[in-house]
Amino acid sequence: MGEELSPTLVVREFDLNKDRERVETVERSCEVGPSGKLSLFTDMLGDPICRVRHSPAFLMLVAEIGEEIVGMIRGCIKTVTCGKRLSRNGKYNNTNVKHVPVYTRVAYILGLRVAPNQRRMGIGLKLVHRMESWFRDNDAEYSYMATERDNLASIKLFTDKCGYSKFRNPSILVNPVFAHRARVSPRVTIVSLSPSDAEFVYRRHFATTEYFPRDIDSILNNKLNLGTFLALPNGSYSAETWPGPDLFLSDPPHSWAMVSVWNTKEVFTLEVRGASRLKRTLAKTSRLVDRALPWLRLPSMPDLFRPFGFQFMYGLGGEGPEGVKMVKALCGFVHNLAMEKGCSVVATEVSSNEPLRFGIPHWKMLSCEDLWCMKRLGEDYSDGSVGDWTKSQPGMSIFVDPREV
Questions:
Q1: Sequence-distant (≥ 6) Cβ neighbours of residue 85 within 8 angstroms
Q2: Is 50 helix (H, G, I), strand (E, B) or coil?
Q3: Which residues 6+ apart lie within 8 Å of 324 measured at CB?
Q4: Engineered SS bond to 302: which of 112, 172, 225, 344, CB 3.0-4.6 Å?
Q5: Half-sphere exposure of 125 (CA within 13 A, CB side)
Q6: Rounded CA separation 22/175 (Å)
Q7: Residue 322's CB: how many other CB atoms inside 10 A?
Q8: pLDDT per residue over 331-363, tens digit each?
Q9: Residue 137: domain span
Q10: Are residues 37 and 132 both part of a single domain?
Q11: Residue 279 in contact with residue 37, Cβ under 8 Å?
Q12: Residues 329/298, Cβ–Cβ less than 8 Å
């Protein structure tokens, strides 16, 4: 699959047996943080394609000069909701009108890296163009990428040189896992849903959410999925009285919320570097005090200065006047689950317009604003009722695929 793009530069498909160590070397060189500042490092545990391999279709490319790998890029393709349209049951029936999802094939770019000593030579641009060619060959209609809002170099490459437009601004919310258990309101019941029940609720109630994956069943049945959990007011339903998803949705309680949990710890670990000795000491002291006096419920800082795993909450949704309260209870439940699994943080990503975000506990110092940039790859659309997705207005919610975290 190689193609010579210049006298010395070749872009080809990644070979796990031949390229793994050289790719890891480039990854480490690209994650050298600024002097005196905190930096986040990723250890992919010997699997450079771990962040795309669970997607329906994926590819990793490397850029090579001689025997040296100088860059890489990862991409995947899936079918997601890009809008919704009205549907009527029956030709003359105007009473049973509902919204149904409109799907499109969308590609996602992540993990673009260029060795520091080879930058500003057009390598990143060539990797993007080659990946987009694979996207088009596989009938993707749109391509998008995500980066932090202050990553100006990446934003400039994609918007100025690759034709992408700034599209969505979701928030990444991160909360530490303390040495004590989080309190879950005694007025809320948490019910664990089977993958099939969770799929039914998602397809029936959340399928018109932007970026909702049509293969939601593959995600819910993946070994990395720890479960889907429903928060309900006490006295409505319990695990013993659960009537099934169909009856539940036909007669739901006044308020409820649900979330699924993905275990990234089995795929990769993170590590914070560049912290001063004072910060490390203060963090360790907070943990020691928290363990010794758990009833005080002190907000201790976990050990983020060694490799750690985290749990990712996705598919967050719900309704009712106490929806935020239900989400808060779910977050407490997931915190305790993460504590049992040995994870150090719980993270999620939600739309900046998401009303349920006010129930999600998070530390501002660990959280950030994300930027998604989108590009239309072809002239044809899967459904004319949507038009150009890149020009659409953001909705209240967004579905973040845990396979791409």
A1: 99, 100, 102, 383, 385, 386
A2: coil
A3: 355, 356, 358, 359
A4: 344
A5: 13
A6: 34
A7: 21
A8: 999 999 999 999 999 999 999 999 999 999 999
A9: 3-169+372-404
A10: yes
A11: no
A12: no
